[in-house]
Every structure is written in structure tokens, then in C-alpha cells.
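Q: what sequence does this backbone want?
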């Protein structure tokens, strides 16, 4: 249980109309802490300066799930950020207040937690309801400056998008898939309040990206046939195509329109498929069901509340009916709105245990049998092998993993995968094991555990390729024996499409663990967000490291207790974090290392030492830690 002092105040537009008031929780130093440090949600982030407690908004009196669906809908499928969701029971001064939603706040820390970016250069713009009463939709600046967005919009609106130079200027500055997915989500959900829930952001060096905000008026069965492109459904936002927006300008370009309609179709076949979306509703229903009798009893005497379990379950069924019927309606809307010639069926035969299929960059997560797409419009199809396999080609078509095709009739194609010659490691090491140099990397497909009583020895020159979110967890002992001429390398398994991996974590490990001459890159953090905050972590363990080269890591080194030695290493800090190395309440020797910041230095120290007695920090060179609240060496409290 986490107990803390915080500021609490009411929040959200529904505060005056809904009796179960929503709350905002704010942390400030004057209350005792600047952050909630806890793994609040089912994600790795564990630091929050603010958090919201929502009442389900406009779905409070029906399903209580309108906005709750979005995080699961978006996860691993869409190029949009969304607010994490967790249902909770709330008590105020010991009195039951009811079932509510714990939600992430779209604040500066959100972008650090979810995108590992420096929020000091954040530009965030959004629409909202502006005064005077009853209000109108308009734009407001959340952070940064209007300059870049105004430049973008001015270019988009000042001439034809069929001008190749103009089109390139605009698309070079936006994540086109993110904009498309935003429009697709709003239309699929028939979200009639879309116009005052637009939010996009960027930091220096990134493109504009879109968030998904406030879907509490979405997924309503009465709107299951609504064509939001041409009909606002009675909401003040109006229809999508009525607006003189960045999207309406871009979709006038044939190349963008073609990519848009086929990417939307890919989502309808996968992300928004009936099976997937009803499954999400069912999973949330099962979580809330045991709590709903108390919620209903608490608020049933209030106008607009849920009156009975039967009434609530009837609304849940309506929501599931929406999910079942909506895809076919949206296909018809796209066909008519964009004057498309018709549909084709595409079947891709493959073994989903061996690889994944992406169409217009959307993972086909609901299968690849009898998919519906638009005829006479190009499709980009990509096959990505899973760890342990290799893509062998498209049968009788191409050996390239990505192909483009324009279908005029129904078609079946076959993706072929073979067993890779690469060495797939077992996920549990229970006896002494040595990995010797071979001509192929060793592949880690999930969380690899080195059990107590076992020693994993990695010989010089070996490469360890880890799948997305895979990590190495050592309870026994691990020795990494690289040399100057033949270092050991830990990296993401780009062969299977991974761009990052989790971490190396020593948890109450036996004996002394050593890492010499190792290259570590592209890792994030481990599965325990409180204890595995770094790329290499030690928890009550003895870990001796020398001649490491670390880069593109969210938080390079994090150690609590035990005994930690880092010598003769180069640690590059690419992200905001507490320190290049943090050592708390244990033995510490940090000497003759280079700590190099790439300029992302707000609240980031090179060396962060807390609670260490008789530690040694000497001979280290520190470069470019010049941001606010950043130190070369922070000896901290305790």
C-alpha cells in the first residue's frame, strides 16, 4: 500500500452535472513529495506528479466503460498515445464514494514516461470548450509555442496538396499514421465530441503526434450507423469532413487518401475487429461486475445514475452490439465518402506462431483469413519473423519481406517462415551454462531467468539479441567475459522487428556477478518498475562491471543495496533519468568512467549516490550535464 500526502481538487467538465465528482491528485514538495512513486498502472512507468480519478464522464449512467476501452484498443496497435486506466474503489474520509477510474494525466511526465523524451522542449496544443457559456470549440496552447503548428497549418491551407513540395513539407513534419489513427478511432467510435478532444504534441527532433482523449460519448449503440465523416450526430463538433483541418487538406491528396483508407481498413480487420473489441469490453465488464452492486446502491437515488445490475448489463450488451455491427457500417461509409470502387477479400496463409503480418503498418492481430480491403488501391504488406524463425518469402511472388500490391479481385497469398539457424535460448537456466562464440547470435524470446544455483557464462565475442520487452533476470550468477578485441553485445533483436528490450536485472543474486567489455544498447527497464528502473539493475546483489559501453538507454544503471563497482566504462545518457548511475544504500566504487549527456539533462545527474558509507567516486569525466537540477555528482540525502 502506498500512503502519501497530496493536494486533492475537483476536475473535468462533468463536475457540475455528475454527483459523483471526479478528482485531481497533485503532488508538490510542500505536501512531502513531488511524485507518486509506485507502479500504479499495468506499464513500466512508476513516477507521477499528478493523477486523475475520473467518474467515467458521460458514460457514468450507462456502461462506465466509454473511455476505459481506449487504452486496450490502442495498445500495440495504434500510433497514438492514450491515458492508462485502472478501476478503483474510492473512499473519502472513510466513506464509500464508489467505483471510479484512476487515469494518467497528459502532463510533462506523461511524455517522459511513455516516450522517453525531454519535456523541456514540449509543444502541446489541444481543443477544448471555450467561454462564454454555453461555450464553443476552440484551440488552446498547453505547452510551448504556436509557431511550428501555425507554420504547418499555413502551408497546408495555402495551396493544393497535390503540389508535391507542399505535400512533402507537411508530411515531413507529422507522423501521418498517428493522424490517420486518430481520425480512424474517432470515426470508428462514433465519438460525437471529437472536435473538442483533439490533442497533438511534439518535442525538438520529433514529428507531430496525436493523443486519444475522452471517448466517454463513444461506442454508443444509438450511433452505430452514424457516418461521422458527413454527419455530426447531433454533437457540437459536427462532421469530420466539414472542418477546414489538416486532415481534410491531406486527404485531398490521392497518395494520402489511398494510404488512409487502406490503413483504416487494416484496423477494421484487426484493431477494431468485432472479436477483439467485444473481448476488450468483456474483460473490463468482468473486472467491474463484482463492484457494481455497491456502486449502484451508493448512487441509485440520484437522477441519471445506473438503477440496477440488469440495467447496467443491458448497456454492456448494447456496447458489444456496437462493436459487432460498427465495422461493416464504417466500411460502407469509407466507400461512399471517398468514392471507392468496391471491396476485395485477401487471405494470407501463414503460421502465426512463426511470424506476424502487417498491412499498411498495422499488425493483423485478429488473424489473416478473408480480410476486407478496397479494390484498385495499393496495399503494403510486411512479414516479420518471430524470434527463432526467418522469413523465407512470399510464395511465388517475392523473397522480400515487404511487398506492395493492388488487388482487383479476391486473392490468397502465402507467407513462408523457416526455423532460423540462430540459437534460441531456453527461458530458464537451471544448470551451469556457457555461451560460446558462434556465427549466429543467441536469441532471447522472453524473460530469461538464471535460477539460483546456476551460473550463466557468456564468452567473448558473443551477441545476445533480445525480443521486444524481453529481459535477463539473474538470481544465480552471471559472468560476461568480453575482451577489448571481442566484446559481448546485448541488443534488440531487430531481425524479429524489436527496437528495444527490457533490462538486465540482478535480484538477490548469488555470489559475485561480473560484466567485462560489454556493449549494451536499446534497453528500457525491467518488469518491476520500482526495482528495475535501469538498463542494468542490482537489487541486494554484488555486481562488478568494467569496460562497459552503454547508449540509447532510458536509465542506464540502477542499484540498491549489495555492492556495486563500475570502472573504465562509457555511459551515454540519451533520456531524462535520475542519473547515469544510481547507487543507494550499499557498497559503491565508481571510478575512471566517462558519463556523456546528449543534452537531455533536466533532473538528470551523471552519478547519483544515496545512503552509501565509505564509497569511492573518483577519476570520472562528466560531459554536458548542464540542464536545470542536473549535477555531475549528487551525493544526496541519507
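A:
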Amino acid at each position: 500500500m502506498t500512503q502519501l500526502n497530496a493536494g486533492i481538487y475537483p476536475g473535468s467538465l462533468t463536475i457540475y452535472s455528475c454527483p459523483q465528482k471526479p478528482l485531481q491528485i497533485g503532488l508538490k514538495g510542500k505536501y512531502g513529495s513531488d511524485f507518486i512513486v509506485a507502479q500504479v498502472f499495468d506499464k513500466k512507468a512508476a513516477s507521477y506528479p499528478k493523477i486523475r480519478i475520473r467518474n467515467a464522464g458521460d458514460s457514468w449512467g450507462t456502461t462506465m466503460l466509454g473511455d476505459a476501452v481506449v487504452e486496450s484498443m490502442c495498445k500495440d496497435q495504434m500510433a497514438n498515445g492514450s491515458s492508462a486506466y485502472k478501476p478503483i474503489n474510492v473512499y473519502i474520509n472513510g466513506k464509500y464514494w464508489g467505483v471510479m477510474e484512476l487515469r494518467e494525466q497528459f502532463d510533462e511526465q506523461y511524455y517522459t514516461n511513455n516516450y522517453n523524451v525531454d519535456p523541456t522542449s514540449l509543444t502541446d496544443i489541444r481543443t477544448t470548450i471555450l467561454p462564454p457559456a454555453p461555450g464553443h470549440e476552440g484551440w488552446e496552447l498547453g505547452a510551448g509555442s504556436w509557431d511550428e503548428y501555425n507554420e504547418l497549418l499555413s502551408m497546408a491551407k495555402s495551396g493544393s496538396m497535390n503540389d508535391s513540395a507542399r505535400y512533402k513539407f507537411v508530411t515531413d513534419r507529422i507522423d501521418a499514421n498517428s493522424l490517420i489513427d486518430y481520425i480512424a478511432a474517432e470515426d470508428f467510435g462514433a465519438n460525437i465530441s471529437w472536435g473538442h478532444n483533439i490533442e497533438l504534441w511534439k518535442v525538438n527532433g520529433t514529428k507531430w503526434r496525436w493523443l486519444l482523449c475522452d471517448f466517454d460519448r463513444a461506442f454508443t449503440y444509438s450511433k452505430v450507423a452514424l457516418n461521422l465523416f458527413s454527419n455530426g450526430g447531433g454533437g457540437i463538433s459536427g462532421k469530420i469532413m466539414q472542418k477546414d483541418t489538416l486532415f481534410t487538406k491531406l486527404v485531398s491528396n490521392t497518395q494520402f487518401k489511398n494510404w488512409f483508407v487502406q490503413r483504416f481498413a487494416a484496423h477494421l480487420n484487426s484493431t477494431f475487429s468485432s472479436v477483439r473489441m467485444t473481448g476488450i469490453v468483456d474483460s473490463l465488464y468482468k473486472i467491474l461486475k463484482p463492484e457494481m452492486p455497491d456502486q449502484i446502491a451508493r448512487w441509485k437515488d440520484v437522477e441519471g445514475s445506473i438503477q440496477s445490475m440488469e440495467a447496467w448489463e443491458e448497456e454492456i450488451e448494447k456496447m458489444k452490439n456496437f462493436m459487432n455491427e460498427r465495422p461493416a457500417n464504417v466500411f460502407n461509409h469509407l466507400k461512399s465518402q471517398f468514392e471507392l470502387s468496391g471491396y476485395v477479400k485477401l487471405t494470407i496463409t501463414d503460421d502465426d506462431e512463426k511470424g506476424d503480418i502487417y498491412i499498411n503498418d498495422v499488425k493483423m492481430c485478429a488473424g489473416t483469413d478473408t480480410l476486407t480491403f478496397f479494390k484498385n488501391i495499393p496495399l503494403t504488406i510486411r512479414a516479420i519473423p518471430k524470434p527463432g524463425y526467418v522469413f523465407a518469402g512470399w510464395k511465388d511472388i517475392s523473397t522480400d519481406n515487404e511487398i506492395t500490391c493492388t488487388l482487383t479481385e479476391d486473392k490468397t497469398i502465402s507467407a513462408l517462415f523457416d526455423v532460423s539457424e540462430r540459437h534460441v535460448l531456453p527461458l530458464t537456466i537451471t544448470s551451469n551454462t556457457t555461451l560460446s562464440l558462434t556465427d549466429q547470435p543467441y536469441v532471447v524470446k522472453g524473460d530469461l531467468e538464471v535460477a539460483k544455483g546456476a551460473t550463466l557464462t557468456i564468452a567473448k565475442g558473443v551477441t545476445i539479441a533480445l525480443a521486444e520487452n524481453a529481459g535477463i533476470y539473474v538470481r544465480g550468477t552471471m559472468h560476461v567475459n568480453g575482451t577489448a578485441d571481442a566484446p559481448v553485445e546485448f541488443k534488440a533483436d531487430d531481425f524479429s522487428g524489436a527496437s528495444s528490450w527490457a533490462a538486465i536485472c540482478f535480484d538477490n543474486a548469488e555470489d559475485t556477478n561480473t560484466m567485462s567489455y560489454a556493449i549494451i544498447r536499446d534497453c528500457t527497464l525491467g518488469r518491476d518498475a520500482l526495482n528495475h528502473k535501469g538498463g542494468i539493475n542490482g537489487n541486494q546483489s554484488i555486481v562488478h562491471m568494467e569496460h562497459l559501453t552503454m547508449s540509447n538507454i532510458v536509465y542506464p544503471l540502477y542499484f540498491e543495496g549489495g555492492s556495486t563497482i563500475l570502472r573504465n566504462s562509457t555511459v551515454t545518457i540519451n533520456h531524462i533519468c535520475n542519473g547515469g548511475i544510481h547507487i543507494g544504500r550499499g557498497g559503491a566504487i565508481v571510478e575512471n568512467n566517462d558519463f556523456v549527456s546528449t543534452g537531455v539533462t533536466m533532473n538528470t545527474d551523471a552519478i547519483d549516490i544515496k545512503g552509501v558509507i565509505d564509497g569511492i567516486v573518483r577519476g570520472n569525466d562528466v560531459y554536458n550535464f548542464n540542464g536545470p537540477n542536473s549535477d555531475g555528482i549528487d551525493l544526496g540525502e541519507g
